[in-house]
C-alpha cells in the first residue's frame, strides 16, 4: 500500500449486453438449485415460497434502481467502494474493498468452482474423489483468471456466451419440463399442499436464503468505468438483469412444484435434481448435473471480472496494494489484481469446504450494499443540486423499502445464524484494525509526498 498509484484509466468498451449478462451471470448460481427445498421445510407452504422468491426479486430491484442513481453520478470502477468512500469517508470505502476481497469475490469464486465440480461429479462427468474435484476446481479458477487478465474483449465475449448458454439451458429445461415432463398442474388445486397455511414466523430466514440467491444484482456498477454511455447503459443493465433473473427464478420454482408435490421436495437441497427425476426419470439426473455445472461457469467468470475492479479503484486511491492499480499496457485489464484474487480463491479451495464457504459469505453480502443505498438518501440531502443523470423511481420510497427489508433480513440472519454472522463481522473488524494500524498512517503522509 502507500501513496496514490499513477496509472492509466480503464477504457469504455463494454455495452449493454455485457453489463446485463454480468448481472445475470452473477445472480443465477447455486441459490436457485439449493434453497427451495430448505425454504419448504421452514415455511411448509409452496405458494408462500413463491411469494418469498417474488419479494426477493422486488427487494433486489429496489436496490438495483437505487444503485443506478449512484452509478450514473459516479461512473467509476469499484461499485460501492466508490459510493461509500464519497458518502462516509475512506474507512468505509476501505472496509467494503477489504471484505469484498475475502468474502465478496474470492470466497464465491472458490465456492462456485467447487460447486461446479460437485455437480459434474454427481452426474458422473468427473471423478468422485475429493482430490480430483479440488484439482479441477483450481484449474477452473486459474483458467478464468488467465482469460480475463489477458483480454477484456475475449473475456467479455466468453462472459456473454456463457450467460446466453446458461439462459438457453435453463429455458430449455423449463420448456421441456412443462411440455414433455411427467408433471401435472394438480398442485394448484385447493386440496394440494401447495396451498397449505404458511408459517409466517419463518419468513425472515426464508428471505435470507432468497437474498443470497439474488446477490449480484449490482454487478454492472463495478465495471462502470468501462461501460459505454454509462448514463443510459447502467440503469438499463441493472433493471434488465434483475427483472430477467426474477422471471427465471419464478419459472424454475413453478417447474419444481409442477414436477413433484411440495412435501416430497421439503428439506431436499438438490431440489432441481429431484424435480428432474420426477419429470424425466432417473436417467435425467446426469444431464441435469451437467446443465447446472455449465450454468455455474458463467457465475464463476462474472466473479472473476467484477472483484478486481474494486481493488483497482482502491489501489488508485492509495487504499490497497499499489500493484492492484496497474493496467496491463497491452491487454488493458487490471491483470495483477485479477491474479491476486485468483491466488486467494485457490487457497480457499485448498483449505476450505463448500459448506464453510457458503455460510461465511451470506451475512457480509448485505452490509455494504445497505450502506450504499442509504447513501442515496444522504447525498440527496447533502448535495441536492448535484447533477443526477438518473434519479431513482418513487424517491424516497424505493430506497427506504430496500433499507427496511434488507435491515430486517440481516437481523434475522444474526439471530438464526450467529456463527457465520459473527465470522463476517470479525472479518470487517480485522479490516478496521488494518486500516487504523497500516492504511491511515500512510494516507496522512500522502499530502507531504505529493
Descriptive notes:
The protein is an all-alpha fold and 450 residues long. The chain has 17 helices and no strands. The protein has helices spanning 16-27, 30-34, 36-43, 46-73, 80-88, 90-122, 130-150, 152-180, 203-214, 230-259, 262-265, 271-280, 284-316, 335-351, 354-382, 397-416, 418-449. Helix 5 runs antiparallel to helix 6 (90-122) and helix 6 packs antiparallel against helix 13 (284-316). The model is unreliable at 2-7 (pLDDT under 50).
Summarize the helices and strands and which ones pair or pack.
Elements: H1 16-27, H2 30-34, H3 36-43, H4 46-73, H5 80-88, H6 90-122, H7 130-150, H8 152-180, H9 203-214, H10 230-259, H11 262-265, H12 271-280, H13 284-316, H14 335-351, H15 354-382, H16 397-416, H17 418-449
Brief sketch in words of this structure:
By secondary structure, this protein is an all-alpha fold.
* Strand percent estimate: under 5%
Helix content estimate: over 70%
Question: So how many helices?
Answer: 17
SSE series: HHHHHHHHHHHHHHHHH
Low-confidence stretches: 2-7
